[in-house]
Amino acid sequence: MSKNSKWKLFGILCASFALVAAFALVGCSGGSSSTTSDDTAAAEAAADVTVTQGKLTVATGNPAYPPYVMNDDPASGEGFEAALTYAVAEKMGFSAEDVVWVRTGFDEAITPGDKDWDMNIQQFSITEERKQAVDFSTPYFTPTQAIVVDSAEGHDTYAKATSCADLADAVIGAEAGSTSYTWGMEKINSNIQVFNSNADAANALNAHQIDGIILDTPTAVYMADPEMEELDSAVLIGQIADSEADPLAFLLPKDSQLTPY
């Protein structure tokens, strides 16, 4: 895919995100001017129950990966999840200046216990198991899973794989606690190597310590693009058939007073 084509696709997906979010938010507000005072009161109430009064503290990954957050800079508002966060914050009554970004690990965020953030967004899929420890917002995206493999000379054993069966002996990496890890264990083999982040998995692939990485498809497309220079030599071999994952949503502390918003 050329750079222009890639960014055209990126723009289409961003527009789709915005459209879905807009419809969801309009549905909640009722779309009537008569609800303005109610909306204002709700926004003021939300500001009173956040970790820091008057601020919305939002956590994301460390690092935060494209195309969900561009250049590891969520405050820029660039990327699917960064832009969506600011749109949601605005609807909740928070200005962009009132959004405070912090970083967490993926597993850390879904572990039961007190949190120092109001919402967390880093491609968390909604599962019944996670609901025991945290709350979720309404969904904003449902990704598929894809596989990127090493294509460097001498390390390209799986570069022409056409099925998960072809990867039965491959060493595949995935982020700890992710849906990608679950799909890898189910569809590829039981030897999925766990990493703290996709960035760590990318470093392992560049060092030829693993044969490939399983990722959500938007991230896989980005990482496999040589123009993005995330991987030294890799190829996207395809999506996993029927791998529509659980939908993604904002994660909130268990029984958060913000969950109804």
Give a nutshell description of this structure:
This protein is α/β, with parallel strands linked by helices and 261 residues long.
Primary descriptors:
261 residues; alpha/beta; five-stranded mixed sheet; three-stranded parallel sheet; 16% strand; elongated; disordered N terminus
Description:
Helix content is 33%, strand content 16%. It is an alpha/beta fold and 261 residues long. The strands form three sheets. The chain has a five-stranded mixed β-sheet. Helix 3 (80-91) links the parallel strand 1 (56-60) and strand 2 (99-103). Helix 1 (3-29) runs parallel beside helix 3 (80-91). The radius of gyration is 19 Å and the shape is elongated.
Reconstruct the topology from this structure.
Layout: H1 3-29, H2 36-48, E1 56-60, H3 80-91, E2 99-103, H4 106-109, E3 119-120, H5 128-131, E4 134-136, E5 145-150, E6 172-175, H6 179-187, E7 193-195, H7 198-206, E8 212-216, H8 217-224, E9 234-239, E10 251-253
Parallel strand pairs: 1-2, 1-3, 6-7, 6-8
Antiparallel strand pairs: 4-10, 5-8, 5-9
